[in-house]
Batch of 2 targets.
Target 1
Amino acid sequence: MWYLLCTQDTDGVQTSELDGRKRVVIEGVRPEIDAGRFAIKRVTGERVTVEANVFADGHDAVSCRLLYRRAADTEWRSVRMDAAGNDCWRAEFRVGEPGEYLYTVEGWVDRFKTWRGDLAKRVKAGQKVDVDLQIGADLLVEAAERANGRDRETLSDAAAALRDTATGGARVDTALAEELFETVQRWPDLSTATRYERELRVVVDRERARFSTWYELFPRSCSPVPGRHGTLADVKGWLPHIASAGFDVVYLPPIHPIGRAFRKGRNNSPVATADDVGSPWAVGASEGGHLAIDPALGSLEDFESLTEAVRERGMEIALDIAFQCTPDHPWVREHPEWFRKRPDGTIQYAENPPKKYQDIYPIDFETPDWRALWEALKGVFTYWADKNVRIFRVDNPHTKAFPFWEWVIAGVKREYPDAIFLAEAFTRPHVMYRLAKLGFTQSYTYFTWRNTKKEITDYFTELTQTAVREYFRPNLWPNTPDILPEALQIGGWPAFMSRYVLAATLGANCGIYGPAYELMEHAPKEPGSEEYLDSEKYEIRRWNVDSPESLKSFIGRVNRIRHENDALHQDRTLRFHETDNQNLICYSKTSEDGANIIIAIVNLDFAHTQGGWVTVDPEALGLDPVRSFEVHDLLGGGRYLWHGARNYVELEPDSLPAHILRVRRWMKTERDFDYYL
Amino acid sequence: MWYLLCTQDTDGVQTSELDGRKRVVIEGVRPEIDAGRFAIKRVTGERVTVEANVFADGHDAVSCRLLYRRAADTEWRSVRMDAAGNDCWRAEFRVGEPGEYLYTVEGWVDRFKTWRGDLAKRVKAGQKVDVDLQIGADLLVEAAERANGRDRETLSDAAAALRDTATGGARVDTALAEELFETVQRWPDLSTATRYERELRVVVDRERARFSTWYELFPRSCSPVPGRHGTLADVKGWLPHIASAGFDVVYLPPIHPIGRAFRKGRNNSPVATADDVGSPWAVGASEGGHLAIDPALGSLEDFESLTEAVRERGMEIALDIAFQCTPDHPWVREHPEWFRKRPDGTIQYAENPPKKYQDIYPIDFETPDWRALWEALKGVFTYWADKNVRIFRVDNPHTKAFPFWEWVIAGVKREYPDAIFLAEAFTRPHVMYRLAKLGFTQSYTYFTWRNTKKEITDYFTELTQTAVREYFRPNLWPNTPDILPEALQIGGWPAFMSRYVLAATLGANCGIYGPAYELMEHAPKEPGSEEYLDSEKYEIRRWNVDSPESLKSFIGRVNRIRHENDALHQDRTLRFHETDNQNLICYSKTSEDGANIIIAIVNLDFAHTQGGWVTVDPEALGLDPVRSFEVHDLLGGGRYLWHGARNYVELEPDSLPAHILRVRRWMKTERDFDYYL
């Protein structure tokens, strides 16, 4: 047993058989999240660029390759890695259909590459190389034994040629031929190759996981008839409006029966009147729980018909899944063990002492019956997935046990690989990131409260330029039914415009609580509050989205720009550029191939015109730093000729608080003449 | 099986049984090297500060503790972790005797802490708390069941008190009492605790691993009689000199028989004359190999006598282990399979094409007989360890297989936990760091070639302020027999002085190739070369260390300052401070307890006086930023009163190119009066 490497000899746990001849080290494989505990995320067609530090002792040449496969496949595919300096090696692969993929790295001492490099030096120095050619011939014979088909023949022939002393100098040419080298590389000697100790995972989602534009609305407010409770059928009437404004996800708050016990009245009043409709997030009543539809909204058929109508317009329904129960929820009766009991026999309602929320019973994830509970909760997702819902906005996931999320998301995706889960967690950073690691496809962010240039720059640099970007897909909301941020309360329509431009260009995924945003609803419940006055959470509202005051056409224009420019479907290409004015923020995004370049410049001052010099980093944009280039303002319509990196910009908040510039540059093609992109 | 969490369900490898009620997440435990693959390093008595991100879903309070133990023990010891903000928790432990230690983190939802916090809020809000006190009583009964001795009684009594409705308001006081809280904390409910998924290792060495001062010399040059080959016995004559200069490691180049085939002559001439002594690194001759002593140096008894004499002076011998063989080495005959054969039947000598080193046969670590080879090489270490050598300087470890080092160092340390291995690897960064991770106790660094303020600042910030510091212990050498850096060739004695001050204060471990450094040997073999002219590697030299030109007293003074100031025994407290002159570098070190503070300022210009303003960071030094403090130049002897952070300094290279300032500050004690430190 002496040749077992015992890293923990005292308890003998971590012993592993060691082949002392495996000389290659592979370390620092990246991306890798928490030592491979979690998957990175991609969408279909995206690239995974893998880097690793690969090296061996001594001076022998090393070769390595990236191995990858769908998790369901058994055979690895491989791509040769290229040296990128300082013992770093790099390669990439593209992922296909949604599902799970694996990758790892393999490296080996490359005897032929070593021999070939040395031979070239010896020849150059005029040394005798007869014995070296014999060594090379032996290596070629070994390679031929590993090879198939034509390559086998080629290698055998080359070996014979290297042994043929009659041919003299031609032997060296044969030995050093590039083509022979490539042939040998196809049949590496892996007998002492090192395989990286972990296989790393990629969860691949469909395209909409990366690029989506959400519109949230309350079906009960959709009635065209004043005074009537809106229905799912009424939502159909809104679809032309939503679709024409360029949204692709129609997100509905919970559609289930609403509890009656301790129902909240208007403006969150603790006492409801008889005609108060209650909060949709108070899930469950005698009519049913998470699998039922509030009869006031319609039937399951109405829901299925709406889902179909949405799909016909190229959009998709997102349902809100809020795992909490009112005292009226059937589970309270059927599964009292899923809730915590107090010594007085009552069920523990939600509290944030001293505040009490008697209308809500939180689910007890520490219940001994947790397995049945988990199955029931999973059943909620699969029930609606079976009704063709594939996007779930999950309410407050950070107040439910983390292991549950990993289990349920993986489980649902096994059946429905196209399912998308958006985590509505506004909480501490580590908690938000953990939920993303556990499997949430998209995540709400702090964007809602990031207003200054420094706040935005720091936060989005963290989200897009650190390891966070591998697993956390931001979805940016300038408002929600819960949050009317101060900027929108006081900033007037310049604030609504610039905050939407920021959300829509900083984030490939973004959304608004639609009617309130379009109509620039901005009155808080009381000063200092972020709650809406007369919040739609507690009452039916009527929205005149055809009002001439509506921001619809502006939002529609921004959304069209999003759709038409691949750069804005990306998050990881986001780069910030210098401006000499604290109220002007400038950033760019490029498409994966670098062809589409968008530069956004936003005036963060809602009250005053701001001008200043913007210095773009030409290298980040792939631009020639000494040539002029044209930028086309897709929002305002202007065209400007920019000279080099530094240019002057002025934005008047009342007319248009932002530029969204498409760069139209001269580009050198392979055929070596310039053409206009 | 549905409740098994399958992270890789396709191949079923990574399944683990899941308790869905374990709600606490533990991630980002640090220090952690390569996901726990490698140990961090400490010396006896040192602190290990562990941090982790620990959190749970929802609003329940979390508690966590650091677990640690000697690897050989079975029971964990534990220390409660403190919240440090942003879900980060921190605790520390101290390591004892050399050997291996383990640590990990455990966290749990703390129901009593949650309940207590909520109770305080309810009481403050004037709510009725009768039921809450019942809940608390239940929690105390559970805690009593987990407790022993007095605590058990205390907890039972408290539970009864909380149930005693007759006592009224006093119940709340009992419930919230700090002492009761502490008692409950001693008996946590760990039934759903989360244990971090890895146990992390600490390799603990003795003190000299962290703080040592090396003096390298060639025994063959130690003869007091001109013309006679020096011996191990002659080295004894040098010990008073070395010890009085403050060195504690006497490092000898290889002491084995030197090969005769292709022996190199003076100045690395390819042809040796009959009286050429050859290079000690050409190991092996008919007299023996790595276990033998060159008869010209003496016998094993002479060696043992020298080792003893060195030890008597509080110093230690370090032996040079160079795993390479001359054609005359016994292993070449006894184990031809350990060397690579060429097709013409010859053995492959060392090459760096087109350069050839026919006097050296590299060992083939890819030999099928690698197990026997490894045992033989390990036998070299254990042979000399058995002869009371505990410090090994390993020659070119980066040209031997990495797995071998991990195996041999761990194996030798199992028998000799006080063994110290210094890696002589001047190669690429990842390779040097890998060797340190694999177990080398100390490592040569790039210090030898880091001359400018920026070079020094960047490099030592990397070594001491990043994760590197956890496993890589720098040993700084301003010269070696292989390297006479350009600075010493051209900089005169100011260069020798300031480079030694830098080595001795930037690095807790440092060393010199002694006689050549003291006597400021500075002639290169040829212009542009870093080889010494008339290098001692190939010939016997005579050194007059009593010469009045010698730097001995200067070096001795620096070494005494090192010994007397705990701050200079540390590496991780190194901080650089601003200077407004590119030729002045300023940095500080503090002892672990912060009581001893050293500020070093070095003139990097060997030719001109340089002055400038130095701005020390008072916070980094634990100094009051508004008070004056005295600094005492331990090198030059001056005392200065410094006013605040910014002070003027001037250094004349010809007299004294550096200050080593000890800060003497006013310090506030717990008894609240000032005293002079």
Note: Chain B touches chain A through 82 residues (CB under 8 Å).
Target 2
Amino acid sequence: MHEDIKKIISDIKSLKIQGARNVAKAVLKALILQAKYSKAKNSKSFYDEIKHLSLLLADTRPTEPMMRNLLERASGYLYEKSREYKEKKQLNRLKNDFINEQKNYIKKIDEDAEKLFAYGARLVPDGAVIITHCHSSTVTGILKKAKRKNIKVIACETRPRYQGRITAKELAEAGIDVTLVVDGAMNLYMKKADLVLVGADSVTSRGDLINKVGTSTLAHIARMHDVSFYSAAELFKYSIMTFYGTREKIEERDPSEVWEKPPKRIKISNPAFDVTAAKYINGYVTEVGVIPPQSFFTLATQKLGVKIYE
Amino acid sequence: MHEDIKKIISDIKSLKIQGARNVAKAVLKALILQAKYSKAKNSKSFYDEIKHLSLLLADTRPTEPMMRNLLERASGYLYEKSREYKEKKQLNRLKNDFINEQKNYIKKIDEDAEKLFAYGARLVPDGAVIITHCHSSTVTGILKKAKRKNIKVIACETRPRYQGRITAKELAEAGIDVTLVVDGAMNLYMKKADLVLVGADSVTSRGDLINKVGTSTLAHIARMHDVSFYSAAELFKYSIMTFYGTREKIEERDPSEVWEKPPKRIKISNPAFDVTAAKYINGYVTEVGVIPPQSFFTLATQKLGVKIYE
Amino acid sequence: MHEDIKKIISDIKSLKIQGARNVAKAVLKALILQAKYSKAKNSKSFYDEIKHLSLLLADTRPTEPMMRNLLERASGYLYEKSREYKEKKQLNRLKNDFINEQKNYIKKIDEDAEKLFAYGARLVPDGAVIITHCHSSTVTGILKKAKRKNIKVIACETRPRYQGRITAKELAEAGIDVTLVVDGAMNLYMKKADLVLVGADSVTSRGDLINKVGTSTLAHIARMHDVSFYSAAELFKYSIMTFYGTREKIEERDPSEVWEKPPKRIKISNPAFDVTAAKYINGYVTEVGVIPPQSFFTLATQKLGVKIYE
Amino acid sequence: MHEDIKKIISDIKSLKIQGARNVAKAVLKALILQAKYSKAKNSKSFYDEIKHLSLLLADTRPTEPMMRNLLERASGYLYEKSREYKEKKQLNRLKNDFINEQKNYIKKIDEDAEKLFAYGARLVPDGAVIITHCHSSTVTGILKKAKRKNIKVIACETRPRYQGRITAKELAEAGIDVTLVVDGAMNLYMKKADLVLVGADSVTSRGDLINKVGTSTLAHIARMHDVSFYSAAELFKYSIMTFYGTREKIEERDPSEVWEKPPKRIKISNPAFDVTAAKYINGYVTEVGVIPPQSFFTLATQKLGVKIYE
Amino acid sequence: MHEDIKKIISDIKSLKIQGARNVAKAVLKALILQAKYSKAKNSKSFYDEIKHLSLLLADTRPTEPMMRNLLERASGYLYEKSREYKEKKQLNRLKNDFINEQKNYIKKIDEDAEKLFAYGARLVPDGAVIITHCHSSTVTGILKKAKRKNIKVIACETRPRYQGRITAKELAEAGIDVTLVVDGAMNLYMKKADLVLVGADSVTSRGDLINKVGTSTLAHIARMHDVSFYSAAELFKYSIMTFYGTREKIEERDPSEVWEKPPKRIKISNPAFDVTAAKYINGYVTEVGVIPPQSFFTLATQKLGVKIYE
Amino acid sequence: MHEDIKKIISDIKSLKIQGARNVAKAVLKALILQAKYSKAKNSKSFYDEIKHLSLLLADTRPTEPMMRNLLERASGYLYEKSREYKEKKQLNRLKNDFINEQKNYIKKIDEDAEKLFAYGARLVPDGAVIITHCHSSTVTGILKKAKRKNIKVIACETRPRYQGRITAKELAEAGIDVTLVVDGAMNLYMKKADLVLVGADSVTSRGDLINKVGTSTLAHIARMHDVSFYSAAELFKYSIMTFYGTREKIEERDPSEVWEKPPKRIKISNPAFDVTAAKYINGYVTEVGVIPPQSFFTLATQKLGVKIYE
């Protein structure tokens, strides 16, 4: 394997590369490098090389649907193309087409993010009070675009890792009025909120949202006060395995994140995520527009090119 | 003022004396000392001395209804007695009666706590999963009494000051199965809970509960899952001024509790309490028994000896 | 019957005298006049005179619990006193006592109202947005007292008779920031409201509120947004017959109030009141303090001197 | 022990005597018999005899709060009286007073029931559709009194023992329009119901209702449709031990009631009761009037003569 | 511009032409006239003429998605066709095709309405009590078709402009049993309702409904009683800009509609619309069938021929 | 008509053939037989024969959307093919194609069921407590597949016909931990449940579920406790007539099923089904995957090949 590809793999593993979009772009770059340095003699072995690397890349992060979906999409593209260019002499054309397709997609990831920010920013009412949780560059992207609307943001600190502080810092630096509060204070601030806006780790086929623990608590509290609850999520956040019934697993993280040196005999539970049912979500802000949660899987399926009826 | 009284006042102010019951007992001790060392020549000036000290003591903690109610009760007792023992030579008898009454009450505070613990422990179902918030010696008193029932406790860490850790430590040392979780995880654990049990800073005339911020979030989440929500509160936690319409003030504490050195331009809001409406509370565990929230003010009014119709 | 008494009766009937408190004071004045001009020869016939007049007065308004309760109270007082002063020569003393008692009560009605206003005003948070319905001098009394708190009032116009306009006018003249909206807009404004405050026609033994049609709609909408809902009601608004199971009757008023000359074949329903269940009410503001709806009947029963166990 | 008393005890045990009121009257009769045939030489040993019999009688039915409360009341009465009539020659007077008191109470049980029926009947709206569950002679007593109001009753059959059929039969014989439905159909009929009315096995200090399994399901469904839910319960149904925190135990009955000869390996759970939280109950219909669930314990405590503050 | 076209524009502006369908048909007629009288020399300039007129027509009513969608559709059709018929001599064929397409669509508007009425009428249960709000010819169209089902309609008067009276009159003339009530009485009548049926000003991409103020209040009250809530809306009511995140603006109308000559200092707020979230809506009745709110944008997008992925 | 076809028709009518899938397979077999023994001379008359038989078969069960949808699909297939093979000599090819298509579909029915079972089994959490109602081979198919997950099943007995016993027996024989309870006990067991899983008689265009009476009660109770509610339903359970507005009729079955020989004058209502609104359903488990209720009609429409815009 080429050194540059190894570097990408190790950077993802060591969290040097972070954020769903950055990871996705990095794995596409790895595929491009592989195509460039490939010594495959025919389309079959080229496809195998790419497929093999894809599996390695997918393993760098067990739960990143966006990256997995893009790797899947790339293999699918190559498979179709390789049937089209069957002849040997077409191998270079195949590689070039594959490289260009991935380059375009890298650009498209950022273009799609910009579209999503714009759609989200329009959704924010003038002078709105917005509650958010954890840190999501998709959410901060929207809020920065909506800055002119004179918004006020309440950021929950998001224990145990305080990602709410990252959100607060980023927004404050962008000149947005932001207040940090402890997670338990949600109910106190919800009364005056116009909107809850959170990111997404992944989205199930029923439109349920998998996101940082605390999200479902926030969504329940929003419902109690009939405040709108939106999640900003690219369609590639779709977790296709949930369509086939697989349950979302709730990762249990290291207890020391919650309490570094706890006294004996105290158990500490530190779940990474929770599930917010579609019924608590008003809509998803995506790169194609603002959609009801129940349509997420239809649109994502189309974008991924997955066929429902075989 | 006698040195021992000064010591009590400074110990309360410096938080050496903590917990609603301990503070209450300390101020009654101060009254006893005052009575012992009093140089008052007649019942009128004796009453004035006690009243004056009471006001000083009440000022040591602006929000401690239990202490305030007991000081009020002591003055009331003295006022009635001083009308009974009008003659000068009865002054010593008056002092003695007053001292004995306070001594009895100090004992009664602990006896009442024991009763409350017993009532609360009976309320806990066998094998119950109980969620609690913050630290309350009344709640831990109940849970320790209910230990034999094979209970499991989920303690919310209670940011910003992590009092949930004190609860977890105390229960673990008592051999109770306790799990500490971050506040945002409430909703995830509520599904399997049998009971929510919290303490009380004070209780309003409508039966609303003033308690550590996060309590009302917990109560709303409990309602969403139809889980019983109880608060353990001595009747002296009654905030009589709410009967006369005064709103509960939500103290705003130092932001450094939430984030010691935050970057610039980030506002931090750190409310100490929130209000849980009576409609979210199944009952209060008190020293006389387990009662509906709407009866709290009637029973507390009777115990305090306050007359509703003048 | 004395002319002045006849005048009072006709003024109540013709609505020259309006408002629960004014009507109550007027009937007590009528009793005083009767006592003054009475030619009764003994306490028995004096009692009969007063009782007879009471029934006439009660008939002037079929649904005014406050007036009825005060008439009932006056008879009860006279009955007890007449047993005390059995001898003939004590008749004048009896009349005088009776007259003084009623005079005191007339004064007390206004004093109680002032207390209620003060308790209610304390309950209003600083800078609060308050939604109200119909017109109630008890509500406007509170709001005027709370004016310094920099409140904003949303008055629902209260079709069909637009009493919301009276409220809006009275508050605007008092210098309060008031906005009039149509009744259907309730839900739109509830999101930003801190408090709903309405008056009371009567209160049942379960703590349910009988008030102008639209009140229960407002209460349901408040619950959907978890906004506090209070009613301002003197304890004499208690409808004792509901304790004995009698259902509240919903008066059906003239259809022309809704549409003066409707086309043919259209039915028009114009109910005067609706019932708001206790579970939607956070508390009642009364002359003794702010209480949970479930305590209304206990306190009212005590004030009225009704015995629960015969 | 006298044969007649033995007969009463065996009749209660063999279910020849049924229904809370009938059992209560039977045990009072047993006390009267004991007093008549007593050979006690002094008030102390008479009291011991009565107390001993009371314990035997209480054991005939482990869960009948009404009977237990009445036995408790009888002992209390005797204790007070025996202190009054200390002298030996007063023993007969003591016995007579005791007998008369119990006789009066037997009459009062029926008089109280009649009052309760009347209060309940007034509560039923004209032309109402009423859903009921299981069989309660208190409920059928009310419905028969309300017959003239042109009511329609939906009786849930109440598996496993079909007591709904007894209700349906009794009402049909009384000429009331009654429809029997399976328990699962509750939701289908709730949309058109005006009222749910059930009986009560016992009532806790928080106002929660212990009643035949299925009652809490009915109450939840009523809440979903905002239909009023009432329980008819004499104040003696109060379970005082719940005031002292003791949990209501849910009796598990014989599985053969559900399925006589089930195939192997199928577990059958057959709980006798469930608990309906006070927040789902609009009111209790009692012999003193219609009250909020939160007042049940206050009024019952007063009627029982229990002191809250010792 | 031709006089007949000017006439259409002025008739729409002066409200001589009213109702979403009538306005839509009028603007298509205007396009036909323009095509007939067009002096364009080539397809490019013909397209420009039509596009220019379309913008003028769209401006006659700022908020009429149906008209806007049809104008958009007409331009789209022309654009495609003009690429097909590129040659000059095909210009007449192009005009004719365009004219015929619009004529067909005018007919289709009415045919679609008829289909919608039929689908809606089937949805109405026999003997149903239906609550409606404001006036919508789509709703009255359905109700008239459902007349044989022996329905009863409750029409809310819909302050400030009393459009409920228009509904009541139209239905009464059609022989339907209709009762007019004030808007505040919603909650009183909901208990006995089977269905709420309203029209639609526009529908967002999330399936939210923009409609006359009071609609969201009605929807919340329906949810409280678990009564089905449907909106009748042609797919062309879809507001495509909400897909791209744009918020629905709530037009603020003239205060004199609420109170012609109000006293000084009273603010009057008169919002024209409110937003009912998809979660409160059971379904939309459309010309293709009865659909969940979440599918509205998918079907509307297909009908409009908008592509989601560019 | 061939004897074998007659046999199939009579077996369906006499309930010898039961279950939606078995009935569907049987009618396809009947079509195959008809094609085999057909004496039609041209494709037109062959189509007529098949269409005629389809109508006869559809009549054997008035409410079986799966069978109806498959018959409809078969006719549609034949219609298209017969236009393709117009020439006479192609008639045999047409018959063969038709027979093969039906044979394939019979196989596909079972394959689809297996897929559905697999998707559903993945959805079940490890160690889950699952509540179910009535008997559905689709539900038991899932549960048996999920057996290794160490599940516990609560089966409601499902009065009046006790189909819950069939479920309990089938699961117990498969070695699954199953507990049978009466229907009224739902609320008691819901507190500890992780999932409710039921079958489906049919599904409406809004995603509402038509299923055995008691299902909607279960769904409402699940919502009260925020427990997930899923229905297992093949896409062919789609009731297309609801798209066109037709209401689901609730069949009223024989009262003797509820009470064999009831006393006189008791009405018995025995509805077969009830309707569970989409808002109470988290998702449907189908043969293509787990989907939100709102997508059921889209996917079913595609599978059926129905065109939405004609």
Note: Chain E touches chain F at residues 118-125, 226, 228, 279, 282-283, 285, 288-295, 298-299, 302-303 (CB under 8 Å).
